[in-house]
């Protein structure tokens, strides 16, 4: 890795580094009883995604790893570091590669989360220890909607706090450059949360079906919480913390542009709308929704495309624009949304196909000639 970074520096390329916490060696999850995520039925999370949300032992291992990584790689030699907790290095609990025993697994049923044994400093125990999603009773009384809503708020806030802890650990170890916070899709929408809570998180609603509910992604609360926590510790000389929407031109953009009027593109005033109750936001593209939430929270925003329909383990699916179409549309979306940076995801699509990189370069240069154009940065690494 050090040799690669040195080669990039000599070539004049900036590098954004992913820490790899979502592809950790399996032993990390075995350092303690709570080292691996557990769902409500006792199923285990993926072995390579350790329980950094609740486990003190896992956080200790992560902190030591980051110290060693800095010694070997010199983290301040990179332009930015991506920070996430989920299966693809994005904000959230794991959603793929799991050995789950539940139809709709929620990942907060390890010993630390339920009892406090081995709980990470600053993390909190479940507000309803022993309660499982879908259960109508807890401790001999009926479970009310407000109980479920409070539990889900704790669930989403806990994973947001883990992101804050990673950022603070990097800062404490001397990293002063930019931080990127990758955000998958649009997470759970407010109306989907209300439906799910009314059903006691038993699998009702679209958010449960697509996994965003179980992954704990609820940006209207998480992004302000993250921004507020980091504001208290960030230093003016340090780089910025960016929300990174990883869904520029995903399947929701395709459907949103078919609305009348189209709802795919960012518009002035998006971040000033009531994002919790405005019914129109359900028709927006996921990146428009995520960007509006990030800006309302006071975060700067960057973005990347989701990958083509045939790219495995990405946000692409059969409804997504092709890679060639994304070459045209994604940079335009980035420009229209005023992103600070646009990155092309999955370099195999860019560097492994004839003239794909050339076509991308021509597209960016043409947009640069437009006064409202975006950055002309491009690279294959």
Provide a descriptive summary of the structure in words:
The chain has a 6-stranded parallel β-sheet with strand order 1-2-5-6-7-8, covered by helices on one side. Strands 3-4 form a two-stranded antiparallel ribbon. The model is unreliable at 373-381 (pLDDT under 50). By secondary structure, the chain is α/β, with parallel strands linked by helices. The chain has 12 helices and 8 strands. It is globular and about 65 Å long.
What is the tally of beta strands? 8
The largest β sheet comes out as:
6 strands, parallel
Please bin the fraction of helical residues: 25-40%
Number of helices: 12
Strand order of the biggest β-sheet: 1-2-5-6-7-8
Give the topology string: H per helix, E per strand: HEHEHEEHEHHHEHHEHEHH
Task: Report the uncertain regions.
Answer: 373-381
Structural class: alpha/beta
- As a whole number of angstroms, the C-alpha radius of gyration is 21 Å
The end-to-end span amounts to 12 Å
Mean pLDDT: 91
Overall outline: globular
Q: Estimate what percentage of residues fall within beta strands.
A: 5-15%
What topology does this entry show?
Layout: H1 2-10, E1 16-18, H2 56-73, E2 80-82, H3 111-115, E3 137-138, E4 141-142, H4 145-172, E5 178-183, H5 190-198, H6 206-209, H7 219-231, E6 241-245, H8 251-256, H9 286-296, E7 300-304, H10 323-336, E8 342-343, H11 347-351, H12 356-368
Parallel strand pairs: 1-2, 2-5, 5-6, 6-7, 7-8
Antiparallel strand pairs: 3-4
């Amino acid at each position: 890795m050090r040799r690669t970074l040195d080669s990039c520096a000599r070539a004049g390329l900036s590098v954004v580094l992913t820490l790899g916490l979502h592809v950790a060696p399996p032993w990390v999850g075995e350092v303690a009883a709570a080292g691996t995520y557990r769902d409500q039925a006792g199923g285990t999370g993926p072995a390579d995604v350790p329980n950094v949300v609740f486990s003190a032992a896992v956080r200790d291992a992560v902190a030591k790893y980051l110290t060693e990584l800095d010694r070997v790689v010199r983290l301040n030699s990179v332009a930015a570091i991506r920070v996430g907790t989920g299966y693809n290095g994005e904000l959230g609990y794991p959603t793929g590669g799991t050995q789950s025993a539940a139809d709709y697994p929620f990942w907060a049923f390890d010993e630390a989360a339920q009892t406090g044994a081995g709980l990470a400093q600053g993390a909190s125990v479940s507000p309803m220890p022993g309660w499982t999603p879908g259960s109508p009773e807890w401790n001999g009384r009926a479970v009310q909607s407000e109980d479920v809503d409070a539990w889900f708020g704790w669930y989403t806030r806990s994973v947001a706090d883990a992101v804050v802890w990673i950022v603070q650990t990097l800062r404490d170890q001397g990293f002063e450059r930019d931080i990127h916070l990758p955000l998958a899709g649009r997470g759970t929408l407010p109306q989907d949360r209300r439906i799910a809570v009314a059903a006691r998180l038993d699998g009702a609603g679209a958010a449960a079906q697509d996994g965003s509910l179980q992954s704990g992604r609820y940006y209207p609360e998480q992004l302000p919480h993250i921004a507020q926590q980091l504001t208290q510790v960030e230093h003016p000389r340090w780089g910025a913390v960016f929300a990174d929407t990883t869904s520029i031109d995903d399947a929701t953009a395709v459907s949103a542009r078919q609305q009348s009027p189209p709802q795919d593109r960012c518009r002035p005033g998006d971040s000033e709308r009531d994002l919790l109750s405005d019914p129109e936001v359900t028709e927006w593209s996921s990146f428009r929704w995520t960007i509006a939430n990030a800006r309302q929270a006071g975060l700067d925003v960057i973005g990347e495309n989701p990958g083509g329909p045939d790219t495995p383990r990405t946000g692409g699916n059969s409804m997504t624009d092709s890679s060639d179409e994304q070459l045209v549309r994604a940079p335009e979306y980035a420009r229209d949304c005023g992103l600070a940076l646009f990155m092309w995801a999955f370099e195999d699509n860019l560097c492994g196909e004839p003239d794909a990189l050339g076509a991308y370069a021509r597209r960016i240069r043409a947009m640069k000639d437009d006064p409202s154009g975006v950055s002309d940065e491009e690279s294959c690494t």
